[in-house]
Amino acid sequence: MSATISTTPLIVETGRGPCIAGRRTTVYVIYEHLQSGLDREFIKKHLLLSDAQLDAAIAYIAQHKNKIEKDYTEIVRCSEHSQEYYEQLYRGRSRFSVNTPMEERAIILRRLGYRHNPEAKIVESSQQGRRLSFSE
Asked: Which end of the chain has less Cβ packing within 10 Å, N or C?
């Protein structure tokens, strides 16, 4: 009788790219951590990975280095584009500058009569458009 050994791959291809099997952690996240100079122990603790999972990801990155670098560059480009888009959207909708600290925003809002109210809701007003409604 011969013994069959079956192994489950530690890296699987998903719609989001190559991931640690059973996890949502992509090899791109591990690649980014490695590129940032973070050490193995920090990466393992931060991403809750075993030695085998981290080793498999590092081996995968080494085997597919050109593709990983190309894909990662595209991911960063798309991320920067999205960040720019949402910052512009925020600037257009906010009464505050992007650089206004949160503490200063809170002070200004309190002066205007706004208080933290978890039951505050957005209401429609024909003259003012959408606004927050705060009930006492």
From this structure: N
Predicted TM-score (pTM) of this structure: 0.62
Q: Is 60 helix (H, G, I), strand (E, B) or coil?
A: helix
d(CA 40, CA 54): 8
How far apart are the C-alpha atoms of 107 and 60, rounded to whole Å?
51
Q: What is the pLDDT of residue 55?
A: 95
Confidence of residue 8 (pLDDT cuts 50, 70, 90): low
Task: Using DSSP, state whether 81 is helix, strand or coil.
Answer: helix
- Picking from 52, 61, 73, 51, the residue whose alpha carbon sits closest to that of residue 26 is 61
The encoded tokens of residue 26 equal 């992509």
